[in-house]
Design goal:
Layout: E1 4-7, E2 10-13, H1 24-28, E3 31-39, E4 42-43, H2 46-59, H3 68-82, E5 87-94, E6 111-117, H4 124-129, E7 131-135, H5 156-167, E8 172-176, E9 182-185, E10 189-194, E11 197-199, H6 211-222, E12 227-228, H7 234-238, E13 242-247, E14 251-258, E15 261-262, H8 270-283
Parallel strand pairs: 7-8, 7-14, 11-12
Antiparallel strand pairs: 1-2, 1-6, 3-4, 3-5, 5-6, 8-9, 10-11, 10-13, 13-14, 14-15
The structure holds 4'-deoxy-4'-aminopyridoxal-5'-phosphate.
4'-deoxy-4'-aminopyridoxal-5'-phosphate (PMP) is lined by residues 35, 158, 184, 187-189, 208, 210-213, 246-248.
Length: 286
């Protein structure tokens, strides 16, 4: 079924949703975006996603011509127009149409796009049997270049790491930061369970402050499980009792192998399963 896409103030059929070849989002990846999940017709943690989009835009000095409430309405209107109950929304703001030079001053106004679609998660077997990861040689950006908190339209760094994962026979890779500590994966945050605690890299280690990450930290704390954000090495990953990834599209995926080493029992562990159940109860309103 043809989708209806929001572009610059209008809802149009997808084949009419077009951007200029001079759009800086295309020419330079000069833009920011969010991926938002829809559960039972409602955008999950919408305010948090919109806030992060505006923060990404602030970092990139990209003025957004609508406010956060109007942006939330754009998402809601796009979802309604597509009558999607469970799906995924891609919200994009590029700096807009310029010329072929880098200087952004000639750009008149940003391009705002909102696409609502259904989502393909990782195949079901990964949720049951767990995912294998490799560590990528591609490092997460140094915090003083493109900060990891910014969801920019330029994901090449992560795509290079993803290509390594695919060449390595899997689909997701661990990315280390410039100091060699674990940061996150190419499109997901990473958690491990060790010594009865849940551990995940801090934002300062190059982890995006994932919205699913925040939800999982809260769920774990509600269960009485301590959560730490220590410096994490590959040794910590290989010797963990359990490991899993979190992300808007992925939700919670167990990881059962990293760089050829089985993690814990080599099966999705009890803490991961408990958190997955709690997450599903939360998003299904139970
Ligand atoms: N890290 C990266 C690099 C991401 O792109 C994402 C989002 N896909 C995440 C982590 C997870 O963040 P969230 O839970 O907010 O989707």
């Amino acid at each position: 079924m043809a989708r209806t896409v929001y572009i610059n103030g209008q809802l149009v059929p997808e084949d009419q949703a077009k951007v200029s070849v001079f759009d800086r989002g295309l020419l330079y990846g000069d833009g920011v975006f969010e991926g938002i999940r829809l559960y039972r017709g409602k955008a999950f943690r919408l305010a948090e996603h919109i806030r992060r989009l505006f923060d990404s835009a602030r970092f990139t000095a990209l003025p957004i011509p609508v406010d956060e409430a109007e942006m939330a309405q754009i998402v809601e209107r796009t979802c309604e127009a597509n009558r999607i109950e469970d799906g995924y929304v891609r919200l994009i703001v590029t700096r807009g149409v310029g010329d072929l030079g880098l200087d952004p001053r000639k750009v008149k106004e940003p391009t705002i796009i909102c696409i609502a679609d259904t989502i393909t998660l990782y195949p079901k077997e990964f949720y049951e049997k767990g995912l294998a990861l490799i560590t990528s040689a591609v490092r997460r950006y140094h915090p003083e270049s493109l900060n990891a908190q910014v969801k920019s339209c330029n994901y090449l760094n992560n795509i290079l790491a993803k290509l390594e994962a695919i060449r390595g026979g899997t689909i997701e890779a661990v990315m280390l930061n410039h100091q060699g500590y674990v940061a996150e994966c190419t499109g997901d945050n990473i958690f491990l369970v060790a010594d009865g605690e849940l551990k995940t890299p801090a934002a300062s280690a190059g982890a995006l402050k994932g919205i699913t990450r925040d939800v999982v930290i809260q769920l774990a704390q509600d269960m009485g499980m301590p959560v730490q954000e220590p410096a994490i090495t590959r040794y910590d990953l290989y010797t963990a009792e359990e490991c899993f990834l979190t992300g808007t599209a992925a939700e919670i995926v167990p990881v059962t192998e990293i760089d050829g080493r089985p993690i814990g029992s080599g099966q999705p562990g009890p803490v991961t399963r408990k958190l997955l159940d709690a997450f599903h109860r939360l998003v299904n309103g139970g």
